[in-house]
Amino acid sequence: MHIPLRMKWTIGVTATSLGAVGAFSFIAAHADIPVIAGAWGGMFVTLAMQAGRSLEKDTALKVAGGILVVLGGLATGAKVANTYFALTGVGTLPAMLANIGCNAGMTILVGRASAKVFLEAESLESWEKVVNLILIALGRGEKSSG
User: Fold this and answer.
1) Measuring CA to CA, how many Å separate 63 from each of 12, 59, 67, 94, 127?
2) Within a 13 Å sphere around the CA of 98, how many CA atoms are in the beta-carbon half?
3) Contact 14/42 with Cβ under 8 angstroms?
């Protein structure tokens, strides 16, 4: 599915911003998760609007939280490794670079998956359904049999 340039721009700006946040939050594992959730919520509202949909900010934050919970294993591993790098002498620069990459990379993946959902989904009636559709697009959700 083709993602329009304006949606790619929204995803890129959000990923860049969260990469910058990662440069300053690599010491404490998960210190930036609330910032990521808020930024993803804003990204979801904007992407839905760009796809001609309506998504309330509260719903978007629930979607962001739901995705972060499911992707928590990946995020936990990366964030703990970042803290380990920073505190054990491996170095703060590798920790910073890993956190920047983790924040930006996850944002790009989730942003592209959500853009596809907002462009293709028949309805966005519940935040749980939106979370599952985005996770399906990421290869992590459960497809319904019905």
Assistant:
1) 19, 6, 6, 31, 6
2) 22
3) yes
Boundaries of every domain in the chain: 5-137
Show Cβ contacts of residue 40 under 8 Å, excluding neighbours closer than 6 positions.
14, 60, 63, 64, 67, 68, 107, 110, 111
Contacts of 101 (CB under 8 A, 6+ apart): 19, 22
Place of tokens 């399906």: 136
132: which 2 tokens? 């599952």
Give backbone dihedrals phi and psi of 140, rounded to 5 degrees, phi first: -120, -5
Amino acid identity, residue 41?
Answer: G
Say if CB 35 and CB 21 are below 8 A apart: yes
For 26-44, what is each residue's pLDDT tens digit? 666 567 788 888 999 999 9
Residue with tokens 């804003």: 42
Q: What is the pTM of this model?
A: 0.83
Taking Cα atoms as reference points, which of 61, 39, 27 lies closest to residue 107? 39
Q: Where are the beta strands (DSSP E) in 4-136?
A: none
